Every structure is written in structure tokens, then in C-alpha cells.
Amino acid sequence: MKYLVTNICYARTGSNYFSKLLESSFKNVNVHYELFNRQHCHLNTDYLKRAEEVLDTTDLKRLAHETPQLFLEKMIEISDEPIISHKLFPEHLDLPDVFRIVDKSAFIFVLKRNFIDVYISKKKALLLTQSHENPWINLDTTNVKIDFNKNEFKEMESSFNDWYIKIVNYLILNDIKFQIVDYDTFHRMSIKEQQDFIKSNLSKKIPAELLDISHQVDLLQKQDKSLDFKTKVNNYDEFMDFMINEYLQV
Q1: DSSP per-residue letters across 183-225
Q2: Closest Cα partner for 111 from 42, 198, 32?
Q3: In this structure, which topology does domain 3-249 adopt according to CATH?
Q4: Which residue, among 122, 158, 160, 128, has the nearest Cα to 144 in the 3D structure?
Q5: Could you state, in order of their start, the residue ranges of all structural domains in the chain?
Q6: pLDDT confidence bin for 137, thresholds 50/70/90
Q7: Which of 3, 86, 88, 200 could staple 32 via S-S, CB 3.0–4.6 A?
Q8: Least reliable range by pLDDT among 84-88, 115-119, 228-232
Q9: Mean pLDDT in residue range 231-244
């Protein structure tokens, strides 16, 4: 029997770290990243050649979006590991397709983070795309400062909240097992505590004998080590004025 684990995410909520932790900790989990990314299908590279042969195409991104349910079924079918993990972002698929994937999942993790940190982290990464091929992973962004734009912030937050509200309400209404992974709480844990947290949740729906933990792990490093907004935002005074006099007054 195969088990699908779906990670519901938004950019900069720690999904790369979480996926890498899964990959390093659990030998029975086949970890894909963004199967439904609109620029590139980020599947487990160990399965790239096999997927192209089975699906008779090198254009996996096109197939993933034309027939997402069939594509996912094939990814599950060709997996040697009994547990298959992947992550979904709001821009990947329409909600009806997201809900269909949720329905066939054994377990759901919902990765969340304080939106102010999400906004700044995403702006940093987007800024760095001008000079780096992949600023979304393992690149120190501590010394990068962004220009805060309150209209952009409000628009992005609306999308952020809408995504999570709809997903969580669907999970609750349909009595689907899920666990919210709060970024700050999770990253205050030791690696062992993080692994135990994941195992204890997955074992609610997946046999525990498939969830042996390896303690020799290869993890991603935190990209932004600064805790002071003054070191993150160029127009700090404007940022704070908005936060204090508008954002926190709503």
C-alpha cells in the first residue's frame, strides 16, 4: 500500500527545510518538492528518467498541469518507497484540483508562518533572483534589505489568508487529518524533536514500522539570521508607521 503526504505551503514558510528534513530522516519517504510548479516540475531527481519513460514525455510540467490527478497517480505508482511526499502552493493548481489531491492524501501538513516574515523573506528572494540562479534555498540573505510597499503587502496578505482559510476549512468540514506546522515553534525544536513531531503525526494514518528515523541528517541552513527589522527594510520608518498606525489598528 502507498501513502500520500501533502504539504500545504506558501512561499517562505519553511517548506524546503521541512521537505529536506523528511528526505533525510525517513528512508521510506519519497520526497518530491513542487510537482506542480508552473515553471518547472520539481520531482525527486532519482525518479526523473523513470517518470519520463513511463509518461513518454520530457515535458513533465505540461502533463502535470493538463492532467494533475493522473500525473500524481503515476508518481505514486512508480515510487519504490511506500510513502510519497510533495508540496502545494496557491499558484500551482486551481482549488478543485487541490481539494482532489487533499482527498487522496493519507496525511496533510499545513506549514504556516507570521506573514510579516513571509513578506520580507519573499521580497528578499525575489530581489536576489536578479543575481542568483536559485535564491530560494541555502543562500544567506541576512544582509539583504527590501523596500516595503504597503499596497503590495496588503494584496499579498489577502492571498495568503485566503489560501489558508479555504484549505483549513475544507479539511475541517471533511474531517481530514492534518497538522499545522508553525514556523517559529517548529524551528525552536531540536532536530530530534522535529523528527519525533513528524513521526507522531504521520503514524496517525501510516504504519509506524514504515517511519523509522535516521539521525544522520543533511539539513538546509536558515537563510536570514537577522532578528531586527531595521536590518531587513530600507524604508524602516515607513514600514513601522504602517504597522503601528494602520496594520495593528484593524
Answers
A1: HHHHHTS-HHHHHHHHHHHHTTTS-GGG-PPPS----PPPS--
A2: 198
A3: Rossmann fold (3.40.50)
A4: 128
A5: 3-249
A6: low
A7: 86
A8: 228-232
A9: 95
